[in-house]
Design brief:
This protein is α/β, with parallel strands linked by helices. 36% of the residues lie in helices and 24% in strands. The strands form 3 sheets. A 5-stranded mixed β-barrel has the order 8-11-9-10-12. It has a two-stranded antiparallel sheet with strand order 2-3. It has a two-stranded antiparallel sheet with strand order 7-13. Strand 2 and strand 3 form a beta hairpin. The longest helix has 21 residues. The structure holds 1-O-phosphono-alpha-D-glucopyranose. 1-O-phosphono-alpha-D-glucopyranose binds next to strand 11 and helix 9.
């Protein structure tokens, strides 16, 4: 079985849900506490053993490429002013030279099209895909979990979580088959089905291990839900020839592409940090108490 060496991280989305903040700044650079959203996906990928990350970018996203580069002036200033902790933190986040590639998706045509844009750099090997809006929290990273299942099953593996049955139309939804390892065989995949047509409430949470044959299918994939070239539709076609497995994620994924998810992530990550949990917890208690008083008075 081939090792998963490369990961694709699509960062070309326009981020319309976060306007006006994202008018001139990529949504992937919005900070969760003090790290940009995209940094969490990169850390998760390297922790799972990934050696090379392919970012699929678009116009107005150049700042992401700069972020993953050395910043000599900043390093010089931190050295001169003796800011050792910040310096070490910056150095630990920097991918080694040559471990990243940046590819342009020239026009937004959907997730399937973005992944297809990475085909030449990935080549003929299985690869990981991480959607950076979805930020993994708690326990081991989500990609490490599906990599474990992949080591047992091979084929294609996707991470899933349960959603409210009424919210299946927000996600890709899978059907549940026989248990295998800590996961199960996938019997169906549907992109954003109405609750009545959903095969379950297990939704695809943005972490995938895919075989390279997906690229050929993406190359001639018809437009699907929302008029976009959907990855899920190409996965359905691939599943006619290759098995798909799903791993329910043991941690929790925050959808930082939505305002609620983004705020929840900021609170969860702040409460998980020794240097922040005390004051943030006190502030939350105060907010809740004052909110309750207001409700009672109303
Ligand atoms: C994409 C996928 C969908 C998945 C979701 C997770 O949808 O197409 O299957 O459930 O990401 O965030 P999007 O959020 O781009 O509409």
């Amino acid at each position: 079985m081939k090792k998963i060496r490369k990961a694709v991280i699509p960062v070309a989305g326009l981020g319309t849900r976060f306007l006006p903040a994202t008018k001139s700044m990529p949504k992937e650079m919005l900070p969760v506490v003090d790290r940009p959203v995209v940094q969490y996906a990169v850390d998760e990928a390297f922790e799972a053993g990934i050696e090379h990350i392919v970012f699929v970018t678009g116009r107005n996203k150049a700042v992401i490429e700069d972020y993953f580069d050395l910043h000599p002036e900043l390093i010089g200033t931190l050295e001169q002013t003796g800011k050792k902790t910040q310096l070490e933190a910056l150095e630990s986040m920097l991918p080694v030279a040559g471990a990243t590639s940046f590819i342009r998706q020239q026009s937004p045509q959907g997730l399937g099209h973005a992944v297809w844009c990475a085909r030449e750099v990935i080549g003929n090997e299985p690869f990981a895909l991480l959607l950076p809006d979805m930020v993994s929290f708690g326990g081991r990273g989500c990609l490490a979990e599906i990599t474990d299942l992949y080591a047992q099953t091979g084929g294609n593996v996707i991470a899933v979580e349960r959603c409210e049955p009424s919210e299946t139309n927000k996600y890709g939804i899978v059907g549940r088959g026989a248990d295998i390892g800590g996961g199960f065989e996938v019997t169906a995949m549907v992109e954003k089905p109405a609750p009545a047509n959903a095969p379950s409430n297990f939704y695809i949470n943005g972490r995938y291990i895919l075989q390279p044959e997906i690229f050929q299918l993406l190359g001639n994939q018809q437009r699907g839900a929302g008029g976009e070239i959907q990855l899920t539709d190409a996965m359905v076609r691939l599943s006619k020839d290759q098995p798909f497995f799903a791993q329910p994620f043991k941690g929790r994924m925050f959808d930082c592409g939505s305002k609620e998810g983004f705020i929840q992530a900021n609170i969860a990550f702040a409460l998980a940090r020794d240097d922040m949990k005390g004051p943030v917890f006190e502030m939350l208690q105060e907010f809740v108490q004052s909110h309750e008083r207001q409700e009672e008075a109303a």
